[in-house]
Amino acid sequence: MAKKVALLQGNEACAHGAVYAGCTFFGGYPITPSTEVAEVMSVELPKIGGAFIQMEDEIAAMASILGGALTGAKAMTATSGPGMSLKQELLGYACIAEIPCVIINVMRGGPSTGMPTGPSQSDVLQARWGTHGDHPAIALAPSSCQEIFSETVRAFNLAEKYRMPVQVVFDEIVGHMRERIEFPEPGELEIIDRTEPTVAPEDYKPYDTQFGDVAPLAAFGSEYRYHVTGLNKAEDGFPTTKAELVDAEQRRQIRKIEDARADIESNEEYQTEDAEVIVLAYGSTARSGRYAVDRLREEGVKAGLFRPITLWPFPEKRVQELAKQTKGIIVPEMNLGQMVLEVERVVARDCAVELIGRVDGEPITPTQIMDKVKEVL
Amino acid sequence: MAERYEVRFSGAGGQGLITAGIILAQAAAIVEGKHAVQSQSYGPEARGGASKSEVIISDAPIDYPKATLVDACLAMTQVAADKYSDTIKAGGLLLLDDDLVKEDPKGDFKIYRMPITNTAKNEIGREIVANVVAMGAMVALTGIVSKEAGEKAVLDRVPEAFKELNQKAYAAGYDKMKALMD
User: Which of B:66-105 have CB within 8 Å of A?
Assistant: First the structure.
């Protein structure tokens, strides 16, 4: 049978990807340019027995998905700029309490209300460091409607596998543009569910390290009774200030992601083998980058594209390798210099690093990138 | 490199031009199985303001999703005609709504004029289908999808009760444009 196809917006594809991944709870508060994610979830979730709640604000929306996730549901919210700022405190709560959930951020310009209908990529450092305190972060940055679908599925998989919040960040261009989507058949994409406890309820500890760095998570409200807190906690979930316990707990949380980089990192490389200049771009900007690379190659310029699909953890090893074999890395992004800081950090002095920053609500064009490549050569 | 064909629908918010772009993309990407990307830009106002919807059609995957040099442009307001005609490529096509655009923008492109809004209002009976009249005209003007593919895409996207109305609007736009081109 032919696959189901449709012309969908990135935001719509995101919602369908979430349902495919097994999401049964969405708590949200609509905000441009992410609103269509909530719209589609409100239509699709009731059909499968799931629940959609429009909460009173973005903070409550974040709180609702933490509650939903703890009871055993795969849960998601979607927002943009100022809404993402409001969610930061509870995002930190999800980090420390290790609650699996997915947060979609369709970025818009800022700070504050900024430019609701214009594209931006200015939340990419917020995705890493927006909430306070040391914490691991996973953020995925798809660049097409089909990839928004599949990366949303992957976001749920990573959230459930590593017991933590995962952000999918994309810009208004890919969120609102429409492309042909092929719906994967059930079973075609891998679906990962969280590990549930096998011990007896009286032996259960919500942060039990005997199972490794990611402990099984029991459904809250089931026969497994446990304590959830935003305080630093011991393996049994109750607060502690014992130095060695707090230290071990904090380091474990960072380690669980550092040790899993190979599983989490995901990049696309195009014409990088012999590239003298590499364009490092993500989201819609990577599409401009690829177009520019093709044109430059036609002109005989050896350009290539490196596209991190996983922004956090940043693929530092591969970028370090590329820096040693190229003259320069160009980082176009719709902000005034965010991922470029990470590139500079990992590249050190192995090659030139140049930013193309744009914040006027217009996309970075292939011409801008081509001009910069020629400048660097 | 694969050929890109770029179409722009421009006018004011509320004229249904984003929908017109979506229908063209649907005709290309779903009905005809080509590669197509539709995108849009508009102000925060729901109505009024300058609005444009762009469709890129290609026989290969499309990287940059926005227009670079537009092959064919529709303008349904004077503001849009003035603002968006400067990126039409040399020798490209510009279709103006004769009822709403009084002055021809200057540039190296071929201009056609058609009473789009009046056709919808007076011949079809509903001004609201002006965007579908325009869509039919753009299919005829560009030939980028077949007449049948365009019609199927229109019918796929409208509720049952409005199918006949939209079918008529599409046919009127298509036929009038063909007559203008002869």
Answer: 66, 68
CA distance A151 to A162: 16
Confidence grade of residue B107 (pLDDT, cut at 50, 70, 90) = very high
The separation between CA A45 and the C-alpha centre of its own chain, rounded to angstroms, equals: 22
Of B1, B37, B66, the CB nearest to A179: B37
The Cα B20–Cα A375 span in angstroms is 40
Instruction: Tell me how far apart the alpha carbons of residues A152 and A20 are, in angstroms, rounded to a whole number.
Output: 9
Min CA distance, A369 vs chain B (Å)? 12
Residue labelled with tokens 């699709």: A44
- What are the chain A neighbours of B41 within 8 Å (beta carbons)? 117
Report the DSSP pairing between strands B48-58 and B4-13.
antiparallel
Q: Is B108 on the interface with A (CB under 8 A)?
A: no
- The one-letter amino acid at B100: L
Residue B145's contacts (CB-CB under 8 Å, 6 or more residues apart) are: B24, B27, B28, B31, B32, B34, B57, B139, B153
Cα–Cα distances in angstroms (integers) from residue A312 to residues A137, A138, A141, A261, in the given order:
6, 5, 9, 10
CA distance B73 to A104: 34
As assigned by CATH, the class of the A268-376 domain is alpha beta
Rounded to a whole number of angstroms, the distance from the CA of A183 to the nearest CA of chain B is: 13
Reference A305, options A375, A352, A346, A366; nearest CA is A366
- In chain B, where the domains are located: 4-181
Q: Rounded to a whole number, what is the distance in angstroms from the first to the last CA of chain B?
A: 32
ipTM, two decimals = 0.93
Judge: A178–B38 Cβ closer than 8 Å, yes or no. yes
Least Cα distance to A232 among A164, A135, A313 occurs for A135
* CATH class of domain segment(s) A5-182: alpha beta
Q: Report residue B175 as tokens.
A: 């036929």
Q: Rounded distance, CA B35 to CA B29, Å?
A: 5
Residue spans of chain A under pLDDT 50: none
Give the Cα separation of A166 and A155 in Å (integer). 6
Class of domain B4-181: alpha beta
* Topology agreement, domain A5-182 and domain A268-376: yes
Best of A120, A144, A148, A180 to substitute, by most chain B Cβ atoms within 10 angstroms, is A180
> Which chain B residue's Cα is nearest to A294?
B1
Q: What is the pLDDT of residue A180?
A: 97
Domains of chain A, residue spans: 5-182, 201-261, 268-376
Residue A104: what pLDDT?
Answer: 98
How high is the pLDDT of residue B3? 85
Query: Which pair of structure tokens corresponds to residue B160?
Result: 């049952």
Give the whole-angstrom CA distance, residue A204 versus residue A241. Answer: 21
Any A CB within 8 A of B157 CB: no
* Residues forming a β-bridge with A270: A305
Would you tell me how many other CB atoms lie within 10 Å of the CB of residue B120? 27
For residue B26, report the phi and psi dihedrals to the nearest 5 degrees: -65, -45
Residues linked to residue B97 through DSSP beta bridges, in sequence order: B114
